[in-house]
Give the backbone structure.
Amino acid sequence: MSKSRTLFLKFESLSRQGEEGLLVIRLMMAFNDLALTNECLDIFKKRYDQDKSNKNHGASMYFIRIQHSHLNEAMKIVKEIKDNEQLLIIKDNCSDKAQKAFVNLLDYLPTGSKHKKFERYVGRIRNNITFHYDENNKLIKKYVEKRAKHSKGNSTSITKGDSGSEWRFKAADDVVSSIICRDIWEIPYTEDIKEAEYNALGFSYEIFTYFMDFAGEFIYEYCRKYAV
């Protein structure tokens, strides 16, 4: 049975908090986007398990790209909270689980022990392939040429449909998959790509889980104190 509770807020109260109130709204945006993206990713991963179609695989990779991009932006907000003494007081009023999640998130910030891995698996996806479509064509050119020379990667397809949702350009999906898995995640051709892809996704899901465990409770505690 759901244990959900609704807290009714006033924008007037949030507005009085100035920059801190705005930061909490941004944190809400990041939380909503990540929750929805992860839900969609789960849907298409399950569909792909049942029907290994080009669309289902392409959709899974799309939501992976979007989720990584939202994570990259969300961590900037985490850093702002870390640097704000007043907001850290709110964090200290959260549960042990939320506080532990916050501490774990700090490992992925620029001063953290896992920041290089974060940049490799998360940051570069946002910067290179999610929104910009590799405008200078360097990565696209690189992996079109690699696939052209590779016996297994050379063949691809495009599918014509009667509506936009029925069309699918697998050629683009193949290039995106190569850029993410081979260039950004640096999975060598000698490794099993499915296993390596699973490990890379496990790393980003770990960050996602920490963020959700922390941010949801932090937002609720802040709003309960300052926005009702």
